[in-house]
């Protein structure tokens, strides 16, 4: 699962989770509500964001982000400690 950015002028909400663009692709885009529901349940989840998207991720799953790695302007989080 990954956070992606679409051009602000072509999308009502410029953030999206997953991958889209092909009609036969599985439904892997998640709404903010769905991400909040599944984050921290079941198998480990990962989310990646560049700095412009960081506040969106932090606001969506606030208090439940475990930072794994930050490099330059990119951050990778998971939903539980890496123990």
In words, what does this structure look like?
The protein is α+β, with helices and mostly antiparallel strands. It has one domain (3-78). It is built from two helices and five strands. The strands form two sheets. Strands 3-5-4 form a three-stranded antiparallel beta sheet, covered by helices on one side. A hairpin with a 2-residue loop joins strand 4 and strand 5 (74-78). The chain is globular and about 35 Å long. The protein starts with a strand and ends in a 5-residue tail after the last strand. The relative contact order is 0.19. Residues 1-15 have low confidence and may be disordered.
Features:
83 residues; alpha+beta; two-stranded antiparallel ribbon; 2 helices; disordered N terminus
Q: Sheet with the most strands?
A: 3 strands, antiparallel
N- and C-termini, Cα separation:
21 Å
Low-confidence segments, given as residue ranges, are 1-15
Q: What does the average pLDDT come to?
A: 76
Shape estimate: globular
Order of helices and strands: EEHEHEE
Instruction: Please state the CA-atom Rg, rounded to the nearest Å.
Output: 13 Å
Number of helices: 2
Report the portion of residues in β strands. 25-35%
Annotate the secondary structure layout:
Blueprint: E1 3-5, E2 15-17, H1 32-38, E3 46-50, H2 51-60, E4 66-71, E5 74-78
Antiparallel strand pairs: 1-2, 3-5, 4-5
Question: Summed up, what is this model?
Answer:
The chain has 83 residues and is an alpha+beta fold. The protein is 20% helix and 27% strand.
């Amino acid at each position: 699962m990954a956070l992606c950015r679409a051009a602000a002028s072509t999308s009502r909400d410029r953030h999206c989770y997953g991958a889209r663009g092909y009609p036969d692709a599985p439904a892997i885009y998640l709404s903010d509500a769905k991400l909040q529901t599944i984050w921290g349940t079941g198998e480990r989840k990962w989310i990646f964001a560049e700095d412009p998207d960081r506040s969106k991720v932090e606001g969506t799953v606030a208090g439940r982000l475990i930072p794994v790695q930050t490099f330059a302007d990119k951050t990778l989080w998971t939903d539980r400690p890496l123990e």
